[in-house]
Amino acid sequence: MELKRVVVTGLGALTPIGNNISEYWEGLKHGKSGAAPITYFDTSLFKTKFACEIKNFDAKDYFDRKEVRRLDRFAQYALVASDEAILDSGVDLNIVDKYRIGVIWGAGIGGLETFQNEVIDFANGDGTPRFNPFFIPKMIADIAPGNISIKHGFMGPNYATVSACASSANAMIDALNYIRLGYSDIMVTGGSEAAVTQAGMGGFNSMHALSTRNDDPQKASRPFDANRDGFVLGEGAGALILEEYEHAKARGAKIYAEVVGGGMSSDAYHMTAPHPEGIGVIAVMKNCLENSGLKPEDVDTINTHGTSTPLGDVAELKAIKHVFGDHAKNININSTKSMTGHLLGAAGAVEAIASILAMQNSLVPPTINHETADENIDSELNLTLNKPQERKIKVAMSNTFGFGGHNACVAFKSMDD
Amino acid sequence: MSDIASRVKAIIVDKLGVDENEVVTEASFTNDLGADSLDTVELIMEFEKEFDIQIPDDQAENISTVGQATSYIEEAKK
User: Fold this and answer.
1) Phi-psi region of A344 (alpha: psi -120 to 50; beta: other; left: phi over 0)
2) CA dist list (Å): A310 to A82, A175, A316, A355
3) B7 pLDDT band (50/70/90 cuts)?
4) Biological process GO annotation list (chain B) (predicted)?
5) Among A15, A168, A253, A262, which is most buried by a count of CB atoms within 10 Å?
């Protein structure tokens, strides 16, 4: 059976550096940091007091009062970003076969704030289990794709992928494969997360995963810098419309890029620590190249997982050198997490979008906040430090890895020949 | 309007996101005010909290309109 070709025909984003695609690109291009002191709750007792929150977002601008109460923030973000992507795709929902449109969406955690608040209420009570009837349906990770399909009537395949910070990359790969195999014509995919809560900050803090650079939040996310001290928690959503190529061509759709393949692997090593030699990461990039029909020399850019943690950044770059050999130094490597922070389950989607926008604009967004070289990192690698770099991009790869040792990598190819 | 009736009304307006004018005595939560099964459960829980009463499930099933809610609560608070 011949696999169908799949292209990207719509994009949507709600990120800490921009609340739609054009604002997001402006932020990426100008090296904007989304980090700031946390506004959602009192952080005086918390080790880390800053994060990359979504700014100027009022759910009431998008939803009526009843909907706001029924939707955790991660589901609100999912609806806002997917609406933008659907509109951007120009697909006429009145004439398409909605049984041929599905939604596969990633969330690493889901409705953490809902879970936290309901349990706090219970703990403060007399032991009577008076849980809100919306507690479970608001919290579960799959309610995001569920709500997207309810809103638009999409009756194709519908579920959530959960692989921590690789969740939305896994969602994109599943969506790609379903179209390749002919199960659907269009897939709404991407991911969302809203874990900037007491439970989220406290939980990641206790793992020593977060930066504690409280005196300078905007400089805290500094992937590949010698003085990096952990990731900065972000939140938001990224949405992509994947479409079967002939279907897109027939309706005269604008095509951003072809999704040529995806790689998946597992470290099989430790719950949270990356394998020091990056063996799972080597495997995932090799898988991705093979699945995409690409040679290492074809790759122009890699948007790394690059979270700004001491171990992870080094292991990923070692793996890149291993897979790409001499070509590694020709690749524009960057980490847009330096600007957006780490959007956990939404990271794969927003970073894939950054890769596609870089391709569209022939400009690689920078890895900001680099001050001091890390002696464990090969100085010959081009990490796109501090300033964007012009580059004609034919092939872009995007890496994402999650706690549990989940690795996913997606490859996009320009349609221009 | 009694104090209980106005408090019932305020809860319904808040939880169902409906206009105050729609919350009339005969209005049914599901047929007239757009509530689904989860909204109805939540309303009953809010009544219990607001008026410090217990509404057993078998009796909650009989409360499907604004008027029925008000009468039940008035009776329970006597």
Assistant:
1) left
2) 34, 33, 11, 24
3) very high
4) lipid A biosynthetic process
5) A168
With beta carbons less than 8 A apart as the criterion, state whether A253 and A91 touch. Answer: yes
Which of B17, B39, B45 lies closest to A64 in CB terms?
B17
B38 contacts in chain A (CB < 8 Å) = 133-134, 137
Asked if A66 lies within 8 A of B38 by C-beta distance, the reply is no
On chain B, the residues whose CB falls within 8 A of the CB of A137 are 38
Sign for the pseudo-dihedral over CA of A299, A305, A310, A311: negative
Shortest distance between the Cα of A77 and any Cα of chain B, in A, equals 21
Residues 6+ apart with CB under 8 A from A181: A1, A3, A4
A325-348 pLDDT tens trace: 999 999 999 999 999 999 999 999
From the CB of residue A125, how many other CB atoms can be counted at a distance below 10 Å?
A: 10
CATH number given to B1-77 = 1.10.1200.10
Contact flag A132-B45 (C-beta cutoff 8 Å): yes
Q: pLDDT digit string (tens) for A108-160?
A: 999 999 999 999 999 999 998 989 999 999 999 999 999 999 999 999 999 99
- Could A66 and B41 be called an inter-chain contact, meaning their C-beta atoms sit closer than 8 Å? no
Instruction: Find, in chain B, the residue whose alpha carbon is nearest to that of A66.
Output: B17
- Nearest-CB residue to B41 (from A64, A66, A133): A133
Q: Distance between CA B49 and CA A109 in Å, rounded? A: 30
Inter-CA distances, B3 with A124, B10, B23, B72, Å: 29, 11, 15, 14
Interface of B with A (CB under 8 A): 14-17, 34, 38-39, 41-42, 45, 48-49
What does each C-alpha distance from A316 to A359, A378, A401 come to in angstroms? 22, 12, 10
Q: Domain locations in chain B? A: 1-77
- Average confidence (pLDDT) per 10 residues, chain A, 417 residues: 95 98 98 98 98 97 92 98 98 96 98 98 93 96 98 98 98 98 98 98 96 98 97 98 98 98 97 91 98 98 96 95 98 98 98 98 98 96 98 98 97 91
CB pairs under 8 A between A and B: 24
Task: Tell which of B30, B39, B43 to mutate to test the A interface (max A CBs under 10 Å).
Answer: B39
Would you call A367 helix, strand, or coil by DSSP?
strand
Of the pLDDT bands very low, low, confident and very high (cuts 50, 70, 90), residue B78 is confident
Question: Chain B within 8 Å of A64 (Cβ-Cβ)?
Answer: yes
C-alpha distances out from residue A159 to A190, A344, A411, Å: 12, 18, 22
B42·A132 Cβ contact <8 A: yes
- Domains of chain A plus CATH, in order, are 7-251 (3.40.47.10), 261-413 (3.40.47.10)
Would the pTM count as exceeding 0.90? yes
